[in-house]
Amino acid sequence: MRPYLLLTPGPLTTTDTVKQAMMSDWCTWDEEYNLDIVEVIRKKLVEIATSHPEEYTAVLMQGSGSFCVEATLGSVVGSTDNLLVVANGAYGKRMGVISEYYNINYHLMRFEETEPVNVSKIDTYLTKHPEVTHVSLVHCETTTGVLNPLEEVAAIVKRHGKVLIVDAMSSFGGIPIDMDKLSIDFMISSANKCIQGVPGFGFVIARRSLLEQCKGTARSLSLDLYDQWEAMEKGHGKWRFTSPTHVVRAFMQALSELNAEGGVEARYARYCENHRVLVEGMRALGYKTLLPDEQQSPVITSFYYPSSDFNFKEFYLKLKAKGFVIYPGKISQADTFRIGNIGDVHPIDFVKLTEAVKEIMAE
Ligand SMILES: *Cc1c(COP(=O)(O)O)cnc(C)c1O
């Protein structure tokens, strides 16, 4: 069922059992679907996200991860609110673009794509701008693989008493995060990242008391997070509009497999080992990472082109023929390519990958 491994930031390599879970059809109003699958998923997501599940709730939303980021900003940040968007990559900037579409009062605070965001600059900005009501941040910027200092940013945002919205798309389920401990109010991720499901929906884990205040704030019907949540709460897992039933079934299977692996801590350990094997192997072949090790997430790694005449397309096709699909770079300052460490991929796969790279270099 897999001609090659996807070493990409999502969709990523899934298990055969996750794919097999999609081989039957489900009726959206049947209790077997609503109560046994959707409600169980919502409960499980909250349990993964926080040590105080009673204070949080989960909403699932059709579409890709960006739909959920848009649904959150558009349903949580009201017309008289003020949003600080902290950005050091494409996904942070996208939150600025969304704010533009929604006419949200916002300030885009930009940092270099090759560095984590600067906590003291955020602190200074919030001191100077008491009108800010919400702050949004990307945890792992998949653009480069840089891991932002979520704990430190969260502490500052909390000290200033602002609502914190975190795009944890490529880290939730793969890197331990406790929303309660960090005082995160809204956290967004999607089915096809570290939970290792297939694409088709995203989800938002929200502080219940804050989400309850968002009735009527949304400027989009389909992306009204409050309305979607209310329908799910009252309907015990009912989606407002047609839900991606097969994808949801696959996600349920993926959650059981996360549990069987030993939960988020165990998955994090595997991703770290994947990353370590990858980087050691590539460095031994002369490749250099874009980021210093201490800023690097275990999710995805950017490598510089090994020479100025490096042909990425050719390299990509040769690796694909050997069973590995990698990702192009996404930044303008340097010529890079990216290799993902997440999904149903294991340290041995990265040993094989670096052997394949070595063979290609010897050709
Ligand atoms: C994948 C990802 C998204 C969502 O991207 P989609 O293409 O809409 O699924 C958002 N933020 C980050 C950090 C991501 O890695």
TrEMBL record:
The keyword Transferase applies. GO terms for biological process: organic phosphonate catabolic process. It comes from Jilunia laotingensis. Its EC number is 2.6.1.37. It holds the Pfam family Aminotran_5. It is an enzyme of class 2 (transferase). It catalyses: (2-aminoethyl)phosphonate + pyruvate = phosphonoacetaldehyde + L-alanine. Its cofactor is pyridoxal 5'-phosphate. Homodimer. Keywords: Aminotransferase, Pyridoxal phosphate, Pyruvate, Transferase. Residues 57-306 form the Aminotransferase class V domain. This is 2-aminoethylphosphonate--pyruvate transaminase. The keyword Transmembrane helix does not apply. Involved in phosphonate degradation. It comes from the Bacteria. Substrate binds at residue 338. GO terms for molecular function: 2-aminoethylphosphonate-pyruvate transaminase activity. The modification N6-(pyridoxal phosphate)lysine is found at residue 193. Belongs to the class-V pyridoxal-phosphate-dependent aminotransferase family. PhnW subfamily.
